[in-house]
Design a protein that fits this description.
With 222 residues, this protein is α/β, with parallel strands linked by helices. The chain contains nine helices and eight strands. Helix 1 crosses helix 9 and helix 7 crosses helix 8.
């Protein structure tokens, strides 16, 4: 099996770029960020304080997350319910980093992700894939862009989905998320030692996808 790990900060385009790169290469795409958002929503639905590790640990055995392909588009199901849209709300976005820092949550989802990687050629994106989840991945990429560029892209995406937010709010969220991800005690955001750094600040989506595809092909051929 060929495993590709793509890490990077919030709003770097990891999901959309990884999804399209996987389609072109014929690989399975695994959006780990969506899985953590689903876990955060699960905690919110149970009205549990996201920092209450003990209470979250009690409900984890019932956590059921599925990634399904629907006409070429990945859908996220939480306990049988399609939550693909609701997990992108600002409320879930703010809760997700706190829930994802829980060691029990990380272990639970890492187990799910590693099982997927053992059975398929995959592209998996997140924040600690190359360092923790798939440390032996065949290809490791750290995909990034400036905070301002990431905020513009995320804001445009939210507006297209009918979600209400200003550019300034999105930029603030991204900067706060960067600080939190880079300084959290468990699995902080950082490039794996052997990862390839790709900055997409100055290139468009199509160029970014092609850059990732070419990087994967070149690495595997060696």
């Amino acid at each position: 099996m060929i495993n590709v790990a793509i890490d990077g900060p919030s709003g770097a385009g990891k999901s959309s770029i990884s999804r399209e790169a996987a389609r072109r290469l014929g690989y399975i795409y695994v959006d780990t960020g969506a899985m953590y958002r689903a876990a955060a929503l699960y905690v919110m639905q149970h009205r549990i304080d996201p920092e209450d590790a003990e209470a979250i640990g009690r409900i984890l055995p019932m956590l059921d997350i599925e990634l399904k392909n629907d006409n070429g588009e990945q859908k996220v199901y939480l306990c049988g319910e399609n939550v693909s849209r609701v997990i992108r709300t600002r409320e879930v976005t703010r809760c997700a980093p706190i829930v994802s820092a829980n060691p029990k949550v990380r272990q639970c989802l890492s187990d799910m992700q590693q099982e997927m990687a053992q059975k398929n050629n995959i592209i998996m994106d997140g924040r600690d894939i190359g360092t923790v989840v798939l440390p032996n991945a065949d290809v490791k990429i750290f995909l990034t862009a400036s905070p301002e560029v990431r905020a513009r892209r995320r804001h445009k995406e939210m507006l297209e989905k009918g979600m209400d937010a200003t550019y300034e709010e999105v930029l603030t969220d991204i900067r706060e998320r960067d600080y939190y991800d880079e300084n959290k005690p468990i699995s902080p955001l950082k490039p794996a030692r052997d990862s390839i750094l790709l900055d997409t600040s100055e290139i468009d989506f199509e160029q970014s996808v092609q850059l990732v595809v070419d990087t994967i092909k070149n690495k595997i051929s060696k």
